[in-house]
């Protein structure tokens, strides 16, 4: 069984209200979707990405031992988040609290399963991106950039 999680967070006006969403797949079939709204007018894209990773790790960690996959591969289109969580890039003080929360949740999950966090190109993360978009649409959050509603 191949268990994967695709995470995404976004804030169209950066900073401004944002959203996060993640999709769980078993053997490439979507089995679960989770999302949330971040109403703060000071939310940034990086904060939304970290909130998503934290939520995914917490939700997966709350499963019983029988329910939790032995191996979990988490994908993110945020190279910053992947490189910081994996310890290869330094963490800016302005993002430190979000990093610390996500890192702690990641470590808890890592004690229960073999977990990896991998960067993927944005176009390979469309399901999680669309989930974020649905949340933003629900709350009427739009940002006009280069003639588009959202990027």
Which helices and strands appear, and what pairs or packs with what?
Elements lengths: L2 E8 L7 E9 L2 E10 L6 H17 L9 E6 L2 H7 L10 H17 L1 E6 L6 H13 L13
Parallel strand pairs: 1-4, 4-5
Antiparallel strand pairs: 1-2, 2-3
Helix pairs in contact: 1-3
Describe the structure in your own words:
The chain is an alpha/beta fold. It has a single domain, classed as Ribonuclease H-like superfamily/Ribonuclease H (Nucleotidyltransferase, domain 5, 2-Layer Sandwich), CATH 3.30.420. It has 4 helices and 5 strands. A 5-stranded mixed beta sheet has the order 3-2-1-4-5, with helices on both faces. A hairpin with a 2-residue loop joins strand 2 and strand 3. Helix 1 runs parallel beside helix 3. The radius of gyration is 15 Å and the shape is globular.
Write a brief caption for the model.
With 151 residues, the protein is α/β, with parallel strands linked by helices.
Biggest β-sheet, characterized?
Answer: 5 strands, mixed
Structural class: alpha/beta
Give me the number of helical elements: 4
Termini separation comes to: 34 Å
Low-confidence region ranges = 146-151
Q: What do the pLDDT scores average to?
A: 93
What descriptive keywords fit this protein?
single chain; 151 residues; alpha/beta; Nucleotidyltransferase, domain 5; 5-stranded mixed beta sheet; 4 helices; 36% helix; 26% strand; disordered C terminus
């Amino acid at each position: 069984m191949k268990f994967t999680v695709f995470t995404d967070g976004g804030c169209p006006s950066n900073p401004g209200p944002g959203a996060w969403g993640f999709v769980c797949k078993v053997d490439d079939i979507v089995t679960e979707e989770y999302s949330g709204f971040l109403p703060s007018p000071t939310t940034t894209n990086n904060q939304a990405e970290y909130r998503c990773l934290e939520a995914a790790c917490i939700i997966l960690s709350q499963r019983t031992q029988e329910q939790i996959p032995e191996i979990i591969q988490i994908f993110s289109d945020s190279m910053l988040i992947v490189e910081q969580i994996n310890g290869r890039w330094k963490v800016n003080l302005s993002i430190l609290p979000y990093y610390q929360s996500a890192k702690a949740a990641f470590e808890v999950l890592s004690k229960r399963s073999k977990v990896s966090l991998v960067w993927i190109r944005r176009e390979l993360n469309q399901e999680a991106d669309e989930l974020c978009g649905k949340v933003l649409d629900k709350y009427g959050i739009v940002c006009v950039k280069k003639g588009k509603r959202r990027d």
